Amino acid sequence: MSDSIEIQPVSSPVCGSIRPPGSKSLTNRALMIAALADGTTTLTGVLDSVDTQVMANALGQLGILVETDFANQSITVQGAGGKIPAAKADLWCENSGTSIRFLTALCAIGNGTYRLDGNERMRERPIAPLVAALANAGIEATCELTNDCPPVVIKTNGLNADVIEVSGAISSQYLSGLLMMAPAAQCDITIRVVGELVSRPYIDMTLEVMRSFGAVIEEPEPNQFRVKATGYTGREYDIEPDASAASYFFAVAAITGGEVTVEGLHRNALQGDVGFVDALVEMGCGAKWNTNSITVIGKPLKGIDIDMNTISDTAQTLACVAPFAEGTTRIRNVAHNRVKETDRIQAVVDELQRAGINAEEHEDGMTIHPGSPQSTTIHTYDDHRMAMSFALLGLKSPGISIADPGCTSKTYPHYFEDLERLCRGVQ
Ligand SMILES: O=C(O)C1=C[C@@H](OP(=O)(O)O)[C@@H](O)[C@H](O)C1
Ligand SMILES: C=C(OP(=O)(O)O)C(=O)O
To answer: Which residues does UniProt call coiled coil (predicted)?
Structure first.
């Protein structure tokens, strides 16, 4: 893909419908659980992107039979019944947080030595809370370097602990990984979160997918989970379209005064990020929640003060809607966004300022003032969500280019084509 892509402004409100590709979070959960299950699982509606390829490849290296048919959005997994066939593996996780966190927990139930690593940014993304949780549970788990980040080495001959404690203050993915591994452990396990838990809807998603494959989990107290060692049963499982990806299309309706329908999502979707629609409604938009689609209707926007802890992947989207609202917008409680693909608080504020928008950085978020973006090239810091959200500015003002558009391949390789199709009505 080229070095940058210039976004063409739209001349009228965007009206249309779109079905984003499958959810990254659900695809990677279903893959891990299918690998642990008894029998065969066929996944449909899966996402074909770097993050899911990395997960599928790593499971293959662990000796699980994973047959991808990405052309048909399908993957078949022969579950190994709670065993990890390979006794040794070096797993490359690129910059996929879900992959490295879920796989680290998965490796704990193996029998051998496993090393997990990723790209330069992944080596700056903390994993020590998960490593400490496993170490306290009797696994020889270490961070290879001195910065509490990957590479991680796991030496294990199975997990035999009945209580695991984990911190959830930096990422919920540590807890999700432990929860998903637990039904395959040697005994029932209580997993307790110590302190704050960010991104809670992802835990509810984890529990729901686990239950769909037969897991039995209770939450006797908030953030304390009792998981039975029942194993999982393979099945056919369909993945919802990605709700975080949908946020960009809902935002298109919001900023152009149009009407955009996203197919395949609904109020009770497994992904908490459908809650982004509520944020747009708070800003003044209309919304229709249908049984198998959600429509956002763009109306005059007003700035809001919003806690986005539970829907933090959509904070960048909201930050790129905010300049077009009347009044300031304050985004709170997303300090965990500083340790994702890039420091997403600093990067968003820097790039809004580069486009001439007045924005301030806070420890936990940002304030954005109304303004009209000026022509510039937006830096994207190898963060797919920087590229996808800042494209919105270019729909409103001429001369906005997005550097390194290929970085969307992490979760949405065809994003710019889909955006073009929606905005220009090209089929
Ligand atoms: O469990 C998941 O699928 C995810 C959890 C979130 O991470 P944190 O829990 O680190 O906020 C989110 O940002 C990420 O894109 C996907
Ligand atoms: C934070 C993200 O991904 P991950 O943590 O899975 O790398 C994301 O997709 O926005």
So the answer is: none
User: pLDDT digits over 297-311, tens only?
Assistant: 999 999 999 999 999
Q: For domain 4-20+242-426, give the fold.
A: UDP-n-acetylglucosamine1-carboxyvinyl-transferase; Chain (3.65.10)
For ligand 2, pick from 340, 344, 382, 412 the residue to mutate: most ligand atoms within 8 Å of CB. 340
> Nearest ligand, CA of residue 96?
2
Any idea which residues carry the catalytic annotation?
A: 313
pLDDT given at position 426? 58
CA–CA distance, 153 with 131 (Å, rounded to integer): 9
pLDDT confidence tier of residue 319, bands split at 50, 70 and 90: very high
d(CA 305, CA 173): 27
Binding-site residues, in ranges, read 24-25, 29, 97, 125, 171-173, 199, 313, 340, 344, 385, 410
**Average of per-residue pLDDT across 64-90:** 98
Nearest-angstrom CA–CA distance, 125 and 102: 14
Distance CA 95, CA 118 (A): 6
With a cut of 70, say whether residue 427 has pLDDT above it: no
Contacts of 110 (CB under 8 A, 6+ apart): 62, 83, 84, 86, 87, 154, 156, 158
Residue whose CA is at the smallest distance from ligand 1 atom 13: 313
Q: What is the DSSP letter of 101?
A: H
Percent of the chain predicted with pLDDT > 70: 99
Domain boundaries, the chain: 4-20+242-426, 24-227
Q: Find out if CATH 3.20.20.110 is the number for domain 24-227.
A: no
Q: Which residues line ligand 1 (CB under 6 A)?
A: 25, 97-98, 171-173, 176, 198-199, 202, 312-313, 336
Residue to mutate (ligand 1; options 25, 167, 270; most atoms within 8 A of CB): 25
Indicate whether this model's pTM tops 0.90: yes
